[in-house]
Design goal:
This protein is α/β, with parallel strands linked by helices. The chain has 15 helices and twelve strands. Helix 5 packs parallel to helix 6. The two termini are 42 Å apart. The relative contact order is 0.15. Bound molecules: beta-L-rhamnopyranose and manganese (II) ion (MN) (2 copies). The site of one manganese (II) ion has 5 residues, from loops.
């Protein structure tokens, strides 16, 4: 750090030290599109392999201490699988992160889970959500992260209002089972797999449901879950203002929920989102914001893509940390439009790579994690080990 201007270096150290990103177990598994899967020899099939890959990402980046788990894919036997997960946590030095219930794969969920017209199916879905909360308790995970595929495909075929009521009721019950340190994160998405209406289509609906559920519920913003041209940083500003921001599923998109590499299409948007958070933090943001990656690459090497994403997130987070917020507030107050915009933009355009590199060196991490992955031979080694064992069927897992 000594060669860098000391105030900049200080901002960088502080910003990067405080920025951890959770990686998803499903990001290491074979995934595909609705047209097919391209298998990768190095893809992880077992929970042990997923922990091993997560540990490799954390070893090289120093920024990913937790692994998000999807209950059905990672703990198919529910609570019974917890001791094994705990052993893996110890062995690989990575903790379990958010617990993601799966309310979209079982045949019964064809017409919905928590919003299904059938009481029995709603109860089954609630049972799974409550079981997921118990898993979070047993693993000492803070966040239970709920995404549902519920919705309908044809106008007039479902009562949207009845479904709101069922959902409110289910989330209230779920909330009453949370431990004191838990948070229930409610994710929204306006399309896919339902294409006429989804039961939690946007941040307003998610925020309403979270407030109805209770004080420990928050909204989860997946950056891929918006219509084109949506001003996501404004949504983030609102959620910060109302105290309802729980965290992010980070990824990029061009058309739909593409789950492309963060910043590969619109890095400025992620910068603008991070700016809102830094700005709220500088005014004493009262609660935690979880940063989680939600990407599962079909074409790129999975570990490589994960590391590339972590690096990109750190760079954009740091760029946003460099905005001179005091000066910006003055320019905003005086309506100095061009000067304000130039100040904002110049932070985005500054090359922070020397700073991230210096941070890594100061923390005894590889200066170039992607290069370190290549020279470690990890991917080739696990590809060989994993090549000939049977593939696990099913999406993501
Ligand atoms: C959804 C959503 C969820 C993720 C699933 C696999 O589109 O983003 O967060 O758990 O995909
Ligand atoms: Mn998501
Ligand atoms: Mn998604």
């Amino acid at each position: 750090m000594k060669n860098l201007e000391s105030s900049l270096a200080e901002v960088a150290l502080k910003a990067l030290d405080s920025f951890s990103i959770e990686i998803p177990s499903w990001g290491f598994a074979n995934t595909g599109t609705r047209f097919g899967k391209f298998m990768q020899a190095a893809a992880a099939c077992t929970i042990e392999e997923k922990f091993a890959d997560a540990a490799e990402v954390n070893r090289l980046t120093g920024a990913t201490p937790t692994l998000a788990l999807h209950v059905l894919w990672d703990l198919p036997n529910g609570l019974k699988d917890v001791p094994e997960v705990k052993r893996l946590e110890q062995r690989f030095g990575v903790r379990s992160g958010s617990i993601n219930p799966n309310l979209f794969q079982d045949q019964e969920y064809k017409f919905g889970s928590l919003c299904n017209p059938s009481r029995a199916i709603r109860e089954k879905a609630l049972g799974h959500l409550l079981a997921s909360i118990e898993i979070a308790k047993a693993l000492d995970s803070r966040d239970i992260s709920l995404w549902m595929a519920d919705g309908s495909n044809y106008p007039g075929t479902q009562s949207m209002r009845k479904r709101i009521g069922w959902l409110e009721e289910a989330l209230r019950t779920a909330h009453s089972h949370l431990a004191r340190n838990h948070r229930l994160l409610v994710e929204y998405k306006p399309f896919e797999p339902a294409f006429y209406h989804t039961d939690i289509a946007d941040w307003g609906m998610a925020s309403h449901l979270a407030s109805q559920a209770g004080p420990q519920a928050r909204v989860l913003v997946d950056t891929g879950h918006h219509y084109n041209a949506q001003n996501i940083e404004q949504i983030v500003a609102w959620l910060l203002h109302t105290g309802m921001l729980g965290g992010f599923h980070l990824n990029d998109r061009r058309y739909a929920d593409d789950d492309l590499t963060l910043g590969s299409i619109d890095p400025y948007q992620i910068f603008r989102i991070f700016h809102e958070i830094h700005s709220a933090q500088s005014e004493g943001l009262p609660h935690a914001v979880a940063y989680m990656i939600d990407q599962s690459h079909n074409l790129k090497g999975k570990i490589e893509a994960m590391i590339q994403t972590v690096i990109t997130a750190q760079e954009l987070y740091l760029k946003a940390a460099l905005v001179d917020r005091k000066k910006l507030a003055e320019l905003q107050q005086d309506c100095e439009l061009v000067a304000a915009e130039e100040l904002y933009r110049s932070a985005f355009w500054s090359d922070v790579r020397p700073l991230t590199r210096a941070w890594r060196e100061a923390r005894s991490l590889p200066a170039d994690p992607l290069e370190a992955l290549r020279s470690s031979g990890y991917v080739e080694r696990v590809a060989k080990e994993r090549a000939n064992r049977g593939q696990v069927a099913g999406s993501y897992a």
